[in-house]
Amino acid sequence: MGSKERIQRQKEDTRKGILDAALQIVKHEGWNALSMRKIADAIEYTAPIIYEYFPNKEGLLIELTRQGYAILGKKIKKAQDSETEPAQQLEAMWMAYWQFAFNCKEMYQLMYGVDMNCCELKKSLPEAEYTTKLFSDAIDKLVTKEPRPEDIICLKYYTFWSVIHGLISINLTQKGTNEEINQQILRGAIQAIIRTIND
Amino acid sequence: MGSKERIQRQKEDTRKGILDAALQIVKHEGWNALSMRKIADAIEYTAPIIYEYFPNKEGLLIELTRQGYAILGKKIKKAQDSETEPAQQLEAMWMAYWQFAFNCKEMYQLMYGVDMNCCELKKSLPEAEYTTKLFSDAIDKLVTKEPRPEDIICLKYYTFWSVIHGLISINLTQKGTNEEINQQILRGAIQAIIRTIND
DNA sequence: TACATTTGCTTAACGGTGTTAGATTATTTT
DNA sequence: AAAATAATCTAACACCGTTAAGCAAATGTA
């Protein structure tokens, strides 16, 4: 009786449908417009159905957050693989991070709480740690001092992250930002931080 | 009959009471716990009363935002006045900005949409432009090139702001950040950006 | 003083939210 | 075909922001 697997597949489809519907609503109408009933409408069910796939709304958002980190991780890895020089790898990776923030603006807001109240416990998501590891390793390759101190990597990683996340946040919340200045700050900061890695 | 003035004063008191109550609730229970009914309870009225002082909840939040910018502006000005050297003034000002973010965490979240969905139209608040002007002028003092190009000031201002706001945001949303590393990044970045002002 | 009017405030409601329990329908098992 | 199980919906709860209607006390007017 292979119907068990078919039902399983159907369940996974509706689960995926819920997540997709949620993301579509958010992309078209913003985070404020997202409600359980509206998701249910989109998948042609009633709201309580969603609770058979997710414990509650926050659980659903956590899953979306996870997906976001998975996508971001892939983009960063791909950017890294597109270059051979460690410095250029690192720059490409942060540029991929930057592009993700604007291409998947809603996901980025959710993942990092930009103009939106993101879920607790998003700390210690394994998917999030993957991107951290990618960046840390890429920075590590640029450290010449031996033995390579862990502190320096952490310090530089957070410095990169601060300036880029900060610039993204400002762009997503404040209106009237200049794209040319964005690029100048972005490239300038990345280059400057790379140069100071071995001070 | 001076009762008109007394009534006026009472009205201003309750208006202030509403704002204070809102801030107290947020400080004790977080932004999610803030509701019109809870504010009304705190000031021993019922919810509709609030609508005689503010058009709606967003209007109330905008007023709180304004207060936040006013406080922040004062702190930054005070920091500037505490130093005489332009470079040290600028550093002191950004350190004041940093301290405000953690001393008035809830206000900062509201003003800049950190882990909270902040109100629209917070662009073009005159109170917000004051701090921008303070920083711009302080940077201007450090530019030696003549004529001082407006671009450079804008660029450097956003660079400062990005790294500091980014670091603040990360600290406010992510758990388990290291205070020593924070200070290293903060001071390091400020010094580094100051050094590059006249490149 | 007596009546009318305004003011201050509350109660009640509307439509929305996330969420849960109970009833109902459909499917599968016996 | 009957019983058991699964899938789904309806209805409700408690909350939210917000508005309209009503009440009661204070004020103005005759």
Detailed description of the structure:
The structure is a homodimer of 199-residue chains. The first copy, chain A, contains 8 helices and no strands. With 199 residues, chain A is mainly α. Chain A has 2 domains: 1-54, Arc Repressor Mutant, subunit A (Orthogonal Bundle), CATH 1.10.10; 65-196, Tetracycline Repressor, domain 2 (Orthogonal Bundle), CATH 1.10.357.10. In chain A, helix 4 packs across helix 5, helix 4 runs parallel beside helix 7 and helix 6 crosses helix 7 (150-173). The A-B interface holds A 31-32, 112-118, 123, 151, 154-155, 158-159, 161-167, 169-170, 173-176, 178, 181, 184-185, 188-189, 192, 196 and B 31-32, 112-118, 123, 151, 154-155, 158-159, 161-167, 169-170, 173-176, 178, 181, 184-185, 188-189, 192, 196. Chain A binds a DNA duplex (30 and 30 nucleotides) through loops.
Features of the shown structure:
mainly alpha, Arc Repressor Mutant, subunit A, DNA-binding, homodimer, 2 domains, 8 helices, 199 residues, Tetracycline Repressor, domain 2
